[in-house]
Amino acid sequence: MYVVIIGGGRTGTQLARLLLKQNYEVHVVESRKDVLSRLHHEIATELIHEGNEIDPFVLELAGIHHADVIAAVTPNDELNLVFCYIARARYNVPRTIARVNNPRNAWLFTDTFNVDVAVNPSEIMSQLIGEEMSMGDMMILAKLRRGNTSLVVERIAQGAESVGQSIIELNLPENCIIAAIIRDTMVVMPRGITRFEANDEVYAITDTQGVELLKNLFSTTTA
User: Fold this and answer.
1) pTM for this prediction
2) What are the C-alpha distances in Å from 19 to residues 15, 23, 89?
3) What's the pLDDT at 223?
4) Domains present along the chain, CATH in parentheses
């Protein structure tokens, strides 16, 4: 996968290093002299392109024609938006990701400016806090489909409603899939006839409504 990152600050640098470790082809565009000085100590010089972040000449040197994904992570929201717009409109980049610096500007980061994914730290933090407060012992392992679906895990409590019942007997909705069960350190591949036991560690793929359903099935309630 070919990734072009606009902005070589702390976020851009760390993102580049992580992607390089995963064997992605990564190129970074940056214009600030002080940032460039540090950036050259962090990643290989041939991956760094100095110049105006929306200059077509600089972008083409960075290989934007080949990019599968671009990430706009500068500290300037206007620049991030303009870059996403240019990347799709002029170079037809399939996927665009933009960092939101000022939460008040979040409403602009939509497909109007060709932004596929907007990374808004304030919104992410508020969602995480809300989920942690509401999910009890259930833990989110990963977000899927832009956060609408999650991979979650929870240990079944003694006396929970699901203990002794099979997966098919729970009549789970289509948006709630049992992916795996860990029982006494062994992996149990779930089938319809598989019965839940207390202390099973259940991995599921589900949405917000499914999380509530599983929480009720796997935990005990007190009067």
Assistant:
1) 0.63
2) 6, 7, 25
3) 42
4) 2-123 (3.40.50.720), 135-218 (3.30.70.1450)
